[in-house]
Amino acid sequence: MIGKKQLIDRFTQYVKIDTQSDPDSRDTPSTKKQWDLANKLAEELREIGMQEVEIDENAYIMATLPANIAHNVPVIGFISHFDTSPDFSGENVNPQIIEDYDGKDIILNREQNIILSPNYFEDLHQYKGQTLITTDGTTLLGADDKAGITEIVSAMEYLINNPHIPHGEIRVGFTPDEEIGRGAHKFNVDKFGAQWAYTMDGSQVGELEFENFNAAGATITIKGKSVHPGYAKGKMVNSMYIAQDFITSLPRLETPEHTENRQGFFHLTDIKGNVERTTLKYIIRDHDKDHFEARKEVLQKLALEINSQFEDEIINIEIKNQYFNMREKVEPLMHIVDIAEEAMKQVDVEPIIKPIRGGTDGSQLSYMGLPCPNIFAGGHNFHGRYEYIPVESMQKAVAVIVKIAELTAEKYKDLDYGENNKR
Ligand SMILES: [Zn+2]
C-alpha cells in the first residue's frame, strides 16, 4: 500500500494551484492559469520516469509507462482532469488535514462559522478514524479531479518502483476543461492509442460507472405580438402566456426534483421573457435511448400543436444532442468493467456499480472510440466549500489502478493477443 504522507504531499501541492476553468472562454485551455499545473505535471511525469511525456498546444498531457512483460497485452489508459469547477472559487485553496477523524462536526472556518457536519453529510460517518482533507471553508478543495491526478501519478510511480508487478503498456492522459464539458473535445484518441481507458473521476470509494445519461439541450423561442394594452383585444399575443402553456403541458413529475436512479426528466433551466418574445431553455436527460428520443419528440409535437392554433409559426424549437450513454459502447466490451470490478475486490474495495445521473468525459471518449468507464477518485461534495476526501480512499484508488494493470497483464498471458496493441 502506498504511503499516506506521499499522497497528502502530492495532492496538497496540486490543489494549491488554482486551475478553475471558464465556460465563457473559447480558448483551450479556457484559462491561462491551467498551464501552471499542466506544466508542472508534465515535468513530474518525466521525473518519476514516465516515457513519451508530451504536452500539446491545448495543455493535454499524455505519457507512457512501457510494458515490463514479454507477452502482448492491450494498451490501457488512465485519465483525469486538472481543472476545477467554475461554480466555486479555487483561489488560495488552504487544505486542512484531519487525522484520526472522530466522527463529529468539523469546524472548517471558525470566523465564518462554517461547519462540515456528519448530521447533514452522512457519508462522513463511514470515515471515522481515517485521515480527511477538507477546505478552510472559503474555497472548493479540487479533489475533483486533482485526487484522480494524484492517484494516477502515484500509481505509475509505484509500478516504476515495483518492477516485479507485471503490466502491459499503460497510457496516462490529463485534460483541461472537463468541468465546462470540453475535457474530451480536443483529446486525440488515436494518439493516445489505448484499447480502453478509465477516468479516475468518480466520488466515493468503490464507485464504478459505465452508464450515464443521454443528454440534449432545447431552446424554445416564442414570438408574441405587442399592442397598446388599452386597445389590444383580439390583437395582442402575449408570448409569456404561451410559454406558460408550454411549460405546464410537460409532466410536472418528470423533473430533477422528482426523479432518481434510472428515471429521466425535462429540466427547465431558464426563462427570459416579455410580451414580444419569451425564451425557454430545457435540458433533457434519460439513460434509455428510446425514452430519450421520445422526450425530444414530445417537445417537438407540443411546439407543432401550439403553432397549429395560430396563423404564423410562433414557436421555434431547437434541440441539440449533448452526449450519449456510454453503456452502448462499453457493454460489448464488458471485460473492461469486469477487470475493474475484480481489481476492487482484490484490494478489499466493495464495488458500487450504478448509473451516473450526468455525463463524464468518459462518455464522450467512448463515442470517440475509446471505451472509458469511470472509477472513484474518493472525494465528496464536489464543486463547493464542503468538499473533502479521505486519504485512505486515495490509497485504495492507487491500489485499484495498480491491480487493474496487473490483472490485464495476467488475463492476456495465455491468449495470443497478437498485433492489436500497436499504437
Ligand atoms: Zn471531475
UniProtKB/TrEMBL annotation:
Which cofactors does it use?
A: Zn(2+)
* Active site feature: D83, E178
Cofactor binding comment, as recorded: Binds 2 Zn(2+) ions per subunit.
Q: What is its EC number?
A: 3.4.11.4
Q: Name the SUPFAM superfamilies for this protein.
A: Bacterial exopeptidase dimerisation domain, Zn-dependent exopeptidases
A UniProt-annotated Pfam family: M20_dimer
Drop me one GO molecular function for this one: tripeptide aminopeptidase activity
Q: Per its record, how is this protein called by name? A: Peptidase T
Q: Which reaction does it catalyse?
A: Release of the N-terminal residue from a tripeptide
What is this protein's function? Answer: Cleaves the N-terminal amino acid of tripeptides.
UniProt entry keywords in alphabetical sequence: Aminopeptidase, Cytoplasm, Hydrolase, Metal-binding, Metalloprotease, Protease, Zinc
What are the subcellular locations of this protein? Cytoplasm
Main location (coarse class): cytoplasm
Where along this sequence does the record place binding of Zn(2+) 2?
Answer: D144, E179, H383
Q: Which residues does Zn(2+) 1 bind?
A: H81, D144, D201
GO BP field: peptide catabolic process; proteolysis
A cellular component term (GO) from this record? cytosol
* Peptidase M20 dimerisation domain residues: 211-309
Describe the family membership recorded for this protein in Swiss-Prot or TrEMBL.
Belongs to the peptidase M20B family.
Which PANTHER family does the UniProt entry name for this protein?
A: PEPTIDASE T
What InterPro entries does UniProt report for this protein, alphabetically?
ArgE/DapE_CS (IPR001261), Bact_exopeptidase_dim_dom (IPR036264), Peptidase_M20 (IPR002933), Peptidase_M20_dimer (IPR011650), Peptidase_M20B (IPR010161)
